[in-house]
TrEMBL record:
Designated name of the protein: PilZ domain-containing protein
InterPro entries: PilZ_domain (IPR009875)
Domain of life of the source: Bacteria
SUPFAM superfamilies reported for this sequence: PilZ domain-like
Sequence ranges assigned to domain PilZ in this UniProt record: 16-97
One term of GO molecular function: cyclic-di-GMP binding
């Protein structure tokens, strides 16, 4: 297997040209279809103001649009975010937050 890495520039910064900065985090939640059926559990790997990267509990194909229900750290509160699938590779998925003004806060 060959692994390719992007090299940092002279300042040591990442070469990624992203609109929003990503923040690493670990939050658990679940992915639900628009008709309220549970698709799979998931963990948030990182998040930005526009979307997130999720690690799915099972590599099920996700629909184009769905709802992510994130549990609070205390487990008492659930935050729901309407999302759109941007990419998926096996059990990893990139999502875009679609709800106006929504952001899955930490």
């Amino acid at each position: 297997m060959i692994v390719l890495k992007k090299l940092a520039d002279e300042r040591g910064a990442s070469p990624e040209n992203r609109r929003y900065t990503r923040t690493k985090m670990t939050r658990t939640g679940s992915i639900w279809s628009l008709d309220q059926r549970l698709i799979t559990r998931a963990s948030m790997v990182d998040m930005s103001a526009a979307g997130a990267c999720l690690e799915l509990a099972s590599p099920k194909p996700l629909p184009p649009r769905f709802t992510v229900r994130l549990e609070s750290r205390s487990g008492q509160k659930v935050h729901m975010v309407h999302c759109e699938l941007v990419w998926q590779h096996e059990a990893m998925a990139g999502i875009l937050f679609r709800e106006a003004g929504s952001k899955a806060t930490s």
